[in-house]
Amino acid sequence: MRALPASVLAVCGLIASACGGTGTGGAASGQAAPATSVEQTAAEQTPTGQSPAKQSPPDAKPLEGKVVVIDPGHNGGNYRDPKAVNRKVNVLTKWKPCDTTGTQTNNGYTEAAFSFDVSKRLVKLLEARGATVKLTRTSNDGVGPCITERAAIGNEAHADAAISIHGDGAAPANHGFHVIMPKKINGPVDKVVGASSRLGIDVRNAFAKGTGLPYSTYIGRNALDYRNDLGGLNLSTVPKIFIECGNMRNAAEAAKFQDPNFRQKIALALANGLQHYLKA
Ligand SMILES: [Zn+2]
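Above: the input record for the complex with zinc ion. Below: its predicted structure, written as tokens.
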């Protein structure tokens, strides 16, 4: 459980670790990969000056043709609309709130802001590698979307991989990161449990290497945890994981999360982990 200020406790405090939710959100920001110019020399052109039938292929980008959905946990406006956020939704194994506010550092840097910033950095990195990327929310001042919608966005995009990004709110002495993967629940997620596990291990490996953060001292084994109570996982029909990048209530990790350079390091590690999975 996490210790939270009273204002946050109302919405988030009841959720056991993993800070709750996935949500939906809205705007898809999928973008096509930039056009690659194909250089032609005069010698390659036909006498009439038209393009030859065969052109040298453009440099292939490693993630060309891959679709990734990134879900920044929570939303910066969730605290303003407890009625909408607390509405119960069916996540197949239980009913739970549509979303939560998420946690924050002791000096008020919110998990919603952290996850959104890391997600935007990750979008840029993946698009530069050729992937088509969609976000489940495109601002940090709105409400939601619900965890059910967040899963639906990945499903509708037919994502090759989906990741929900969070920071945990555990007791201050706890530290380290962990990845959460779905379990079989005799539901639609069952068919992607195996792929999600491979995705989780690839991201775990890349995250440890790229950030230097230790495996969680308080959840899972070797930074791997499996759950059947998260709507964002239970309702996914595409390979999907959550990452809790560390403990926002731990002073050392909170300081790192507030450093833009470290957030870039996190985004790069996540991009590398996703690429390793997608290229396998
Ligand atoms: Zn969270």
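Notes for the reader.
The CA atoms of residues 182 and 227 lie 5 Å apart.
Residues 19-20, 73-74, 102, 111, 166 surround zinc ion (CB under 6 Å).
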